[in-house]
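Reviewer 2 asked us to include a model.

Predict the structure of this chain.
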Amino acid sequence: MNIDYKFAMKFWNDVFGNVRFAQDCFGTWMCRDAYSNEAVSMKDHLGGNQYYDYSWNIDHIRPKASFQNEDNADNLNNFEPMHRQHNLEKSDNYPSFSIQGRHYKIVQNNNGGYGIIDSLGRRIDWKKDGRHYR
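Predicted model (structure tokens):
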């Protein structure tokens, strides 16, 4: 599946609705307009004068490299809007990974997709409220 700008914007709207700023599952702010594989610095969304990297992209929760057939990774329930730096830090680590020194684990959902839990076993991905693609 080609994850392009058009797909990313639709996915953002499916997950966050029509808001310009949202936090990824680790609590880092992203801006819908900053979809990129490069840093995108913009003024603080709260009106401050500091610049902040709001860049984000679409993460494969369970990395493509962990599948015998990488095409199986392109399931909508395996995607997560994620701050670009967190996606780089998570990399292809599976089933466990760390972000900013905190430990997380990738779990399979009942619907065939994947999710992320923290060290206490709490869901943190966008499907934590029981939402998913059918």
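Residues 5-118 form one domain. The longest strand covers residues 102-108. We have added this to the supplementary material.
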